[in-house]
Every structure is written in C-alpha cells, then in structure tokens.
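worker-03 picked up job from queue 'complexes'. Input manifest follows; two sequence lines, order preserved.
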Amino acid sequence: MTLLQVRNLTIRFGRKVVVDDVSFDLDAGERLGIIGESGSGKTLTSLAVIGLLPEGAVVDGSIVFDNVEILNRSDGQLSSIRGNHIGMVFQEPLTALNPLMRVGKQIAQPLRIHRGMRMKAALARATELCERVGLPDPERIVRSYPHQLSGGQRQRIGLAIALACDPSLLIADEPTTALDVTVQQEVLNLINELVREQGSALMFVSHDLPVVSMMTERVAVMRSGTMVELATVSKLFGGARHEYSQMLVRAARQSDDEFVRISEGGHR
Amino acid sequence: MMRGNRTLTIGISLVAFSLMMFLLSFIWTPYDPLEINPELSLTSPSWSHWMGTDENGRDILSNIVLGSRATLITGVLAVVICMLLGVTIGIATAMSPKWVESPAIFGTDIVLALPTVLFAIVLAAVYGPSTYTAVFAIGIALSASVAQVTRREVNVILLADYVTAARASGSRNLRIVRTHVLPNLRASLFVQASGASAIAILAESTLSYLGLGTPPPDPSWGRMMASLQQYLIIDPIFPLWPGLAILITVLGFNLLGDGLREALDPTLRRDVE
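worker-03 finished. Artifact:
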C-alpha cells in the first residue's frame, strides 16, 4: 500500500528552481534514503512532505500522504498530520529543543496536541518514551533542560518527540551529522530498531552513502534539485547508472578500502 | 557577580526608595500636604519643615511624598498599557505574512515619529488634562517602540529550529506563542518594561510641569517644579526637591533596566564562568 506519493514536485524561490520535477513513492513500512550534497534539494523535499517549506517557496506538483493531498492545505489542516502521522527528526539536536523548557514537557507537546492528554498523563508517557529511546534514568531526564544533556541524549529526545504519537512515517533529516562518530552508530541503530518495531515508513535524508545504505532498502540520489537515480541499495552498489551515483559509490568504497588498509596496517 | 551587577543593585535601591515613598504616602506624611498656612509662606528648610514650605505654606516634603502617587501610578499604568499593546502588536505582526507585517511596521513608525509629549499635549487638548489622558497618551506613544523591539525579537525566535520542530509536531501559532515565543521573550520584556517606566515617569513629569497631567489639588512633582521655580530668588533650593525626586526615580528605573539587561543577557555578562 502506497503511503506517500510524490509527483512532479517542483519548488521555486522567485525564479530559482531548487527542486525540479521530483517523483517517488513510499510504501507503508518501507525505508527510503535520500542522498545528495548540500543544496541538492533533499532537505526541502523532506520539508515539503511535512508542509513546512519556508516562506516564499512556490510549490508545484503533488504530494499525497495517506490519500490526503499535502500541498495547498491550510496550516491548520496540516498540523493535525504533523507530529501525529508524520514525525520528524532534525539535524541539530541542540537547536531543535527549546532551551528554556524541560525536555519532558517538550516530549509531552505532541501528545497533548494530538492525543488531548493532560499534562500529567503526557509527562508519564514522556518518561516511558525516554526509556524506549534508551535514555538512562528517564525520571531525571524528563526534568532536565536541554543544556544538561549530551548531543546524543538530545537527539534521542528528538526521536522520542517524533515517535510520541506512533507516526506511520518518520522523516529523519541528517539526524546524526551533528553527533560524535561513536554516538552516531548508536543513534542509527536506535532509529533502525524503533522504525522496525513500530512498522513506520522511514525517509532518511543524508549526504553519507554508507549510512544511507545501512538504514534503507532504496536510495534516491539527488543533485542540484533533480532526482538523478532511484534504485535499491544493492543495485546502486552493483552498477549505478548515473555518473554522480557512480562517484558516490566509488567514494564510499574508497573510504571503506582506506579504512581496511589503515586498520590492517595498524595491526602489523 | 556583585561587581557585574552593581548597576542592578543601585537601580533596585533607587526604585525601592521611590516605592517606599509611594507606600508611605498612604500611611503617613509629616504634615497635611494640602493644609494652607499663610504665615509659613515660602520658608527655607528648617528642622520643623525639612524641605521648607511653598507659597501657600504647605510642607514641601509632605507634598513630595504624596506627589509620588501621581507620578508612579501614571507611570506604572502607562507601562502596563504600552506593554500589553506593544507586545500584542509586536507578536501579531511578526507572525503574520509579509503583506500584513509591512503596513503594520509603517503604522508603528508613524507613532514612533511623534514625540511622546507632543502626542500627549494633543490628547490633553482634545480630552482635557487628567491623569487618564496622560496615562493613555504615554502608554500609546511608548507602545510603538515596544512593538518594534518585540517584533524584531520574535522574528529571531521564529527562525529558531525549535519553532520549526514544534510546527513539525503539530503546534499551531497560538501554542507556539505560548510555549516558545513568550518564555524566550521574557528577559527582553523585563528590560523593556523597566526602560519604559523611566520614560513614562519623565513624560508624566513633563506633562504635569506643563499643566497637562494630574489636575490640582493632588500634588505631582512636575507641577510642584513649575510652581516652585518662580521662587528661585527667595531660595534656589525650592525647585531642587521635586527635581531630585524625579531624578532619583527615573535614574532608578533606567539603571534597573540596564542592570536587568546585563543580568539576563549572558553575552553582556562580564563574569562568565
């Protein structure tokens, strides 16, 4: 069953076309990676899906989520989908949390909005969610302010907020780019695990092909606003058709070889 | 900590001094401030009348204490009006689309271009001089700058990732204002309210000096200044008293505002750990 259907999505700022004629489908429970360099339009594509394009963006085409057209919807209509059926994890775990608000309250927000929960019940659920995203001592965590937590912990909070209402689609926009390498792996495993557990679809936006190939089955390669290739991970590594995809695969292989060479050299 | 906040300490002390005078006026004044006593007309400061007496033989100290009411009440009410009005307009314009925001900015610019006192004089001419005319005139005039500053601050807050994240969780505008904008605006509002108090008190004094504030017989510092300055030749200290009262209060609120800004804005703090 098709959960998300993007057709001929075009985003413009004034005369500048930043996303050009992008189309793809996403089935329920499926995991799709969107990969591209900065400025390739991958983030704007994901923001368009949740209806959060910045002011001044002109959009054409169609985005149908769960049989509902997202484009040209009013903010009020979209807000019942956001955080409820579509959850989103942001790149910067530091700035994506309000510094003046205890994190428990921030996790409670979507529950209060979409589930109509009272603060007390929502906070109790927030504590459970903290536990679910692998945070130690959840009672203490929900009472903390963002600055008292590490980057990895904050990103787990972001994940708890995104998954609070059991969305059928999770959008992760470079969720590990701002994290330490050791923490990256943990957070990626966690996302993998939670998405699988919950059966949500995943749209994973990244510039890192090895990461994307680890997280998803299919990859959409974007470059300067257009989608140059859409293929399964194995197909992409087996023989990418577009020149840019080939370059990405080569780069991924090279760094892999380099890693093997260095680690073997180190043993000698 | 103590050194960095000296401004705040002095500001709080001066404001507290004015507030004590205000509270004292409800309990006790050395003499009946309104009692006319022709034999004692225009006596210089003495042990029985610390600040001397005015042309009608009224005790100046008692009038200064009582006059704090007109000044502080007008000032505080004007600030309440200007904050309510200014913050509402500021947040509303910041959150509305460009085609609403631009004309609104133009509107506040026009109000900003009018000098506060001139605006108050016009209102007083139309509605007659009274405490309320002064309160509204000062409140409306000051709200323009509060609206401008608030709008700018809100625009910065709205760009924050956590606001986008809140929208992505389904928050709508009202909830975003309540949970994200207002808490992050709080520090700036304290500073603005304190600064506005200083300007409002000064404006009230100016208006009553011109005879457009609180009407007699209730004393006000501005009017006392206007009447006592005629007797400079008899004793130059007479108009100094209301002047000093105004100075202390205005300086107090100004220092309080600066001190708060310093204390609440970490980038201005000199003693970062």
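worker-03 released lock.
The beta strands of chain A are 2-13, 16-27, 31-35, 57-65, 68-69, 86-89, 169-173, 201-206, 218-223, 226-232.
Chain A is about 45% helix and 25% strand.
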